[in-house]
Amino acid sequence: MKFSKRIIPLSLAALCSCAGLSWGAEAPAVPLPFGPTISAFGPAGTGFPVGKLGVLLNYQNCETDGTRQGDREVNENVRLSKKVGVVKLRYGITEGLDIRTATPLYDVHKKNLATGKGEHLGWIGDTGIALHKVLMNQAKGAPFDLAVDLGLVVPTTDVSNKSVDFVGNNAWGAGGAIGLTYSAGSHRLDQELHVYTFTEGAHDYRKPTYLRSTTAWGVAVNNYFDIGAESQFDWNASSEKNGLKQNDSKNEWYAGPKVAFKYKPWGFAAGLATMFPFARWYEANTPSEGYRVELKLSKTFDLK
């Protein structure tokens, strides 16, 4: 896409960074940026305040720009319009330890342009639960923040002819993550890397093992507004059906600019990012998204 090429310099900057969310007890000397807008467990190497509950909503709207195999477009016979929401909760248990959950909700419209036939899919996916432990704290003299996650995916979906197995098919999963954060003045540089694998679930389908690298950079313009860029790379192995590999592995890299608004007295923040494909490779014929518009809303409550 011509428009995506115009934002290459800004989007490449996202390969260096990723931002986290934390409401401190004291006013910072310089304004601090809001965390990643794109959907990820986050916030990388930082923790969550003890006794506080974070309620977050990630919303992604995207549309395919053709069916691709390898790194090339094959045809434009299938069009998918996707609306995906992820409801996330975070709670600070003790200093440096918090628990978080993520439950996807999705709505997909699929249309075969060759035949004119359409299909409407969607509901709720399987829920991820993770413990997030901070190992190094930059505020206490470490060179950066470092944290690890240990997580499970638990069966929460309602499998039907309208559900999508890739999002949820009542399967168990397990995985972990590592996150690193470096802060300098009003800038944050974070990197989050996580990997998950799954058991076989409904329809004799096993979701692919995947690795995701979420990178973002944010700079606080003032106490209310941020600018930055974000990047996400996904590597998916092949899925399995009846114990047989489906030869549908894929790699995707999306990146783009973001803006954010935050209002600390209310514990509220919102971010908006526009993501474009910079590298895509598919083993099988796969409808691929031409863009992603991502919105994040966050509200923190003090339960102490």
From TrEMBL:
Q: What is this protein called?
A: Transporter
**The organism's place on the tree of life at top rank:** Bacteria
Signal sequence extent? 1-24
Alphabetically sorted, this entry's keywords are: Signal
Gene source species: Geomonas limicola
The record's Pfam families line, in alphabetical order, gives: Phenol_MetA_deg
